[in-house]
Write a structure and sequence with these properties.
Layout: H1 3-26, E1 30-34, E2 42-48, H2 58-71, E3 81-84, H3 88-100, E4 104-109, H4 114-122, E5 126-130, H5 136-146, E6 150-151, H6 154-161, H7 170-177, E7 188-192, H8 197-208, E8 214-219, H9 225-231, E9 263-266, H10 269-283, H11 289-307, E10 312-318, H12 332-337, H13 343-355
Parallel strand pairs: 2-10, 3-4, 3-6, 4-5, 7-8, 7-10, 8-9
Antiparallel strand pairs: 1-2
Helix pairs in contact: 1-2, 2-3, 2-6, 3-4, 6-8, 10-11, 10-13
Length: about 375
């Protein structure tokens, strides 16, 4: 190996150490209990991913993507990191890029909110604008080739960058935290799909560890994942953007692995947003819309468990904090502009928490 090669290997070793040290400093995320009637015999837990340093579940993904690029020799000193993301993934990747002294550029639609752009730039990232969300992928590839950089490509590598067998992934963390609970092996784990990486990790882990847990994926309006799972047609595409940030895609992303999913539920956007207000009211936790989608799904499954006389536990995620959405999801004027009426769903939730029966509006 040449002197230059030795220097590169040395730099990569130090980069991996820096990222691992950050993980050790961050410790693990909390597992909260959502209050349910004690006589139901069912416990609901919320793994709070909003407490990561960059405030979301995507912190884990960004760490894995950078480590994946480092150990594969794709990232070295001076490598420009490129992504196609206007959301939490880009925020977290910018954080890790700055930690390693690397330039980070993310391709974003021109209509991306100033708040998101500011957060990416806060961590040292730079936004490269395109007119249409559909242009993001090809433009990210072009930029990476132009500058001889590395396209992190969350939508392709999310399912493989994380070690699904363990190594402190989110699934292993959940089971370790559940070990002293009255139902330590969850009956259900409920997650959304943005890249598909989280459901792939949970689905593979529970099979590898031979747990009886089932994995349910909740999907918002306009997303392609639900239709693809139902039809087993991975070319299924709505071509429409999701209003629930962080989950739902206009196309099926390469990291989506339908074979590890036991059930999918389609969740109305108004139901997701009513659920985060209920969460804040009942627990004090302020979360984003994707957490509401998760919570809606847990209520559906818990109602089914009660109907079938089953006891057990259900686990879902708090994906990010609600402060990012003060002007949208928690703003009544924004809801009215979007023609989203959350009141009927709030009544459904109140009836569910009283009786255990979940009956969506109009049923």
């Amino acid at each position: 190996m040449t002197g230059r090669g030795l220097q590169r290997r040395s730099w990569i070793r130090e980069a991996v150490r820096i990222i691992e040290a950050d993980a050790n400093r961050s410790a693990d995320t909390h597992l909260h209990v959502f209050p349910l009637p004690t006589d139901w015999g069912i416990d609901l837990y919320l793994k709070d991913e909003s407490v990561h340093p960059t405030g979301s579940l995507k912190h884990r993904l960004a760490r894995s993507l950078l480590l994946y690029g480092l150990v594969n020799g794709q990232i070295g000193p001076g490598t420009v990191l490129i992504e196609a993301s206007s959301g939490s993934t880009a925020v977290s990747e910018a954080y890790f890029a700055r930690m390693l002294g690397l330039e980070f550029v993310t391709v974003v639609p021109r209509k991306t909110s100033p708040e998101k752009i500011s957060l990416i730039e806060f961590y040292g990232g730079r936004c490269h604008f395109v007119d249409s969300p559909a242009e993001m992928y090809s433009e990210a590839e072009r930029l990476a080739e132009e500058c001889n950089g590395h396209y992190l490509d969350q939508f392709t590598y999310a399912e493989r960058a994380t070690d699904w067998r363990g190594n402190n992934n989110i699934a292993e963390s959940v089971y370790a935290q559940m070990v002293s609970e009255r139902h330590p092996v969850p009956a259900w784990i409920v997650v959304g799909a943005g890249t598909g990486g989280t459901s792939a990790t949970f689905g593979r882990y529970v099979r590898y560890r031979r747990h009886t847990t089932k994995v349910a994926v909740v999907d918002p309006e306009n997303s392609s994942f639900y239709g693809a799972w139902q039809s087993r047609d991975l070319d299924h595409a709505t071509g429409m953007s999701s209003r629930i940030e962080g989950i739902g895609r206009p196309r099926v992303e390469p990291s989506f692995v339908p074979g590890v999913i036991d059930e999918m539920l389609q969740v109305p956007d108004a139901g997701s947003l009513a659920a985060i207000r209920l969460l804040r009211e009942r627990t004090g936790h302020w979360a984003g819309g994707s957490t509401g989608t998760n919570l809606y799904g847990t209520f559906v499954l818990i109602s089914r468990m009660l109907e079938e006389g089953q006891a057990g536990s259900v686990v879902t995620l708090v994906c990010d904090g609600g402060e990012r959405y003060a002007d949208t999801y928690y703003n009544d004027d924004w809801l009215a502009e979007q023609n989203l009426d959350i009141k009927p769903y709030a009544a459904v939730f109140e009836e569910f928490l009283r009786s255990g029966k979940f009956l969506p509006p109009g049923v």
